[in-house]
Amino acid sequence: MCKYLLKLIILCYAVLSMPTQAESCDDFTNVSMRKLHAEESINFCEFKDKPLLIVNTASNCGFTGQFKELEALHKKYKDKGLVVIGFPSDDFFQEENDEADTAEVCYVNYGVTFTMLSTTAVRGDDANKIFKHLNKEAGAPKWNFYKYLVSADRKTVQRFNSRTKPLSASLTQAIENAL
Predict the structure, then answer these.
(1) Which of 23, 36, 38, 111 pairs as cysteine with 116 (C-beta 3.0–4.6 A)?
(2) Mind listing the GO biological process terms from this record (predicted)?
């Protein structure tokens, strides 16, 4: 009985002393953020070694229709490793005041299945940690639906403006190169 108890203690110690996923992610993506209209959070370290397409979104913008093409990108490339993440933001005064309304626009109106986060600032001093890094590396978004393609090794950030459609040749080629 003592042998089994000792083995159990050793096993527990080994498991508890293993580095966590967050500890194994030592770049700007070592951050947790809450999902849109949910209590669940994600830690960006979950996406280690995968390219990220990060987009600042808004529910009431002339570019809101890009959700359809972003969803198409997500479906086309998710099995190859691309992670699409939307950051609703009211920095340009075009986001819903109620997160439930933002969720309805994304999930009901546009059928979004890629990760959407709770509303957050994406520029200026109030920008979240992810966008502070993106802004430093590639420049802050000048409007909604700026797209940031972050390489799997996190060393390269490419910025695409609002007018660049998600399924455009330039963005899809950059994604394919990143994969």
Answers:
(1) 36
(2) cellular response to oxidative stress
User: What's the CATH number where 30 sits?
Assistant: 3.40.30.10
Domain-located, residue 173: yes
pLDDT of residue 158: 98
98 domain-assigned: yes
Cβ 100 vs Cβ 68: under 8 Å = no
Total-model pTM: 0.86
Phi/psi of residue 15, nearest 5 degrees: -65, -45
Q: Which one of 2, 25, 45, 61 is the catalytic residue?
A: 61
Mutual orientation of helices 169-178 and 66-77 as an angle, nearest 10°?
Answer: 30
Beta strands at 32-34 and 41-43: parallel, antiparallel or unpaired? antiparallel
Q: Using CA atoms, how far apart are residues 166 and 58, in angstroms rounded to an integer?
A: 15
Number of domains in the chain: 1
Give residue-wise pLDDT tens across range 18-52. 344 444 688 899 999 999 999 999 999 999 999 99
